[in-house]
Amino acid sequence: MTHKKSVQKKEGPVKIKTDIQKIMRRSRLVGAYEDLNDAGLKKEIVSRLETLLAENDLNDKMLAGHLKRSILPAIAFHSALTGHGYEKKDSAERIRSSVINDAKSSASFFQVLGKIPFFFSLMRVMVKKGIQLNYGKSGWDFVWKRDDPEAIVWDCRRCFYADVFQKYGMPELTEIFCESDDVVYGNIPGVRWGRTKTIGKGDAVCDFSLFKEK
Fold first, then answer.
1. Which ranges constitute the DSSP H helices of the chain?
2. Do 48 and 79 form a contact (C-beta atoms < 8 A)?
3. Is 45 helix (H, G, I), strand (E, B) or coil?
4. If pLDDT is split at 50, 70 and 90, which confidence band does 10 have?
5. Which residues contact 109 (CB under 8 A, 6 or more apart)?
6. What is the percent of the chain where pLDDT is above 90?
7. Average pLDDT, whole number, for the chain?
8. Which of 90, 134, 146, 158 could form a disulfide bond with 141, CB atoms 3.0-4.6 angstroms apart?
9. Each residue of 57-86: b (16+ CB within 10 Å) or e?
10. 52-76 pLDDT, tens per residue?
11. pTM of the full predicted structure?
12. Which residues have a Cβ under 8 Å from the Cβ of 150 and sit 6 or more positions away?
């Protein structure tokens, strides 16, 4: 009587870590992440990101985009570095540098468009449409105060970034992403950007304004 060897079916490679690493490298934290020379620390950041993704609801596509591209990579990076003895200030500055550098590409886009005649009319449409698509009611509360050929002015009374960073005990990271707005909108030809309050700095609202320059 012959005995056949039992053949165990080989499972395919586990891709989850690679997929999480891709999310990190496509995020606004890619610069800070790639600048690290410690392979073990980078592995821990990816592991922490995997955990964060698993414990957050990603069913809302719009909110998931912010979580995967900005918020959760920042939390994973900050928690890993501070957990390994890095000062909070040092970690936050690394995050800031990466986020601001990422914002510069959008800033360049608007600076080119700003040279087009009658750009402010286009800007009004772009801003409102962009907010509608990318900053919906499930994460933000906006109150429009002015929308006319000379200005658009609105308040943000609730911010998804502030809510999540507060949840994870890292409110200091919120203002980094507030600052990226200043980079994007702060130097558009023919447009004056303004904001005197930010939730990220402890204010009750962010008061946004874009004025057409005479």
1. 16-25, 30-35, 39-55, 61-66, 72-83, 88-113, 119-134, 160-167, 174-185
2. yes
3. helix
4. very low
5. none
6. 84
7. 91
8. 158
9. eeeeebbeebbbbbbbbbbbbbbbbeeeeb
10. 999 999 999 999 999 999 999 999 9
11. 0.88
12. 211, 212
- Domain boundary assignment for the chain: 16-212
Say which residue the tokens 């994973």 belong to: 76
Dist. CA 207–CA 188, nearest whole Å: 18
**Domain 16-212 architecture:** 2-Layer Sandwich (3.30)
| Beta-ladder partners of 143 | 155
Which amino acid belongs to residue 133? L
Asked if 104 contacts 184 with a C-beta cutoff of 8 angstroms, the reply is: no
